[in-house]
Amino acid sequence: MATEQNDVELVDGDVVHAFARAALLATLLGAVAPIAIPIPFSPAPITLQVLFVFLAGLLLGPLWGTVSILLYLAAGAIGLPVFAGMAGGLGVLVGDSAGYLWSYPLAACLIGLFVHRGTDLRDPAEISTALVVVALVTATVLIYGMGVGYMAWLLELELWEAITVGALWFVPGELLKIAAAVAIVESGRIDTV
Amino acid sequence: MLEFRSVSFGFDDVGVLDSVSLSIPDGEFVVFAGANGSGKTTLLRHCNGLLDPDEGTVLVDGTPVEDDVIGARTSVGMVFQHPRDQFVAATVGDDVAFGPANLGLERTEIDRRVAEALEAVNLRGREDERIERLSGGEQSRVAIAGALAMEPTHLVLDEPFTGLDEPARRSVMDRLEALAADGTGILLATHDLRDVLALADRVIAMADGRVVVDDSPERALEGLDGLPVRVPRARADLEEQC
Amino acid sequence: MLTYEPGETVVHDLDPRSKLAVQIGFAATALAHTAPRALLGLSVVTAVVLALARVPLLRTLYAYRFALVILAVGPLVAAATLGPPWIDLEAGLATALASYRVLLILLVSAAYVRTTPVRESRAAIQRTIPGKPGQLLGIGVALVFRFLPVVQSDLRTIRDASAARLGTERSARERATTIGLLGLSRTFDRADRLSLALRARCFSWNPTLPALAFSRRDAPVLGIAVALLLTAFL
Questions:
Q1: What is the ipTM, given to two decimal places?
Q2: Cis omega before residue C85 (within 30°)?
């Protein structure tokens, strides 16, 4: 069993495992882009992408959750149809919705830090619901802050105008996603890495 | 040569091992029989260091696996149950190139290995096709090619026929027969022994983490009675083919 | 849907890194300028890029329809004012110009998407970003490309099954929870199997990188990219 390839540096088993989950969660984030669920009292149907941003932070933690979302953004940047409306391309990452997209990795990281207090992951089912809700609400504020702020700058809109276009209609949907994310982690049916 | 020396392993969801000792010479076609949870998957995952034994040692060509994991993974190619979840690239050629590229080989050497591996599974010339558009049998063969591109001495296949229809199963069997004829050692775990016994040099049956039968196919059949494996057809096939 | 299509155009033959550089230069200058004259110049560049890459305009606009809605609504919202005179044309025009440049940026990136296979993009990532991050990002996008149809079909199965079993009457929250939970557990099962296969195939930090080479025709393109970037500071 003579090996000539002594300088091959294998990726550690734990890293491979976390990386595979991060990559496939990024895929899932892209695959749900076309799924829209209509909700009452809002003209805008919800999409589930933010739900999976939440779950990335909750289940993969601050490091691999962030890696997962960055993989998603990179896949979209090179043209895979993973952004809203199954669009792709580098332009989307500076376009009207770029503020939202760039907020996702930060939001996942923030949730991960809040809930796990570091890169050693805790079982999210055992973390108090209140803490999870606070983390998700803070992340939602971050997402909309960056999304609306960038849109206002890019399109030369007043802040309240940008809020009208980019946030107001979506608030009921966001509450629903927070509830769904809490239900999923508390079900205890999905283990962390 | 693969050697298990008193290998024990516990607390894994795919089964436990209880002091297993075995040695498998190069070029042998070995069929592993046994129910789910009997330990055959756990045993096979020790061949290339995907699992490390709690006690005992696994040796590949005389070297303990933990001393040369890369060597073990190169010498022992492994194909798992769900081919769809084993691919890392969207097209056939790129996927088969993944293993050799990880070894840091020259580009021309990688291309040569991809071509040879695809030739061995009857998929030469299909490099640019999308894997997702291939049939189940073709996907299984691409997964085998991905392992062959490492130029292993042994090929381990864990339940490779799950979900395949009869023609697809035949096409995979046919390729395994050709590989075995070329001298590649085959370790095939399956609970479905139809027509594989005719190819086998040896049958190892496991139950509760122990080897309960280790014999030539003809004699092993006696011991397989009472084990939850699909033998009646196999016995008929064997009588027909031998 | 806007995706890569094999072809013989000059843009297909360029190195993906040159094409990425042009996009970055173009986006930088477009984000810095909204004056009508600058937009005219950028429009000409966009038209040339689209023509060289043979990008079908209508299909591309349709692919970006979600963005187009915002870009169209933006100027209207900007122009509307509470109280007389009800319409502020100047504000509306400013937003319209700002929106238009975003459209141009999207169209230029469409030329990249249409002419660059994922394999080349992956090579560009692994060769541009050094070390472990580049390797993870490169293999990661290859995995997203590989598994996108698989996960999409999983999601279809989940939606069909839950519609058949429980109907479409359930609350939106329940539907989101079901899709999230089942989608995630299936996806993580696949990931766990994938990670075994990656390890068995010697997934390493320092593989042979995919082939990629600049050719002579990339030189002027890189020059254009730098020129575009510099105009951002004008």
A1: 0.94
A2: yes
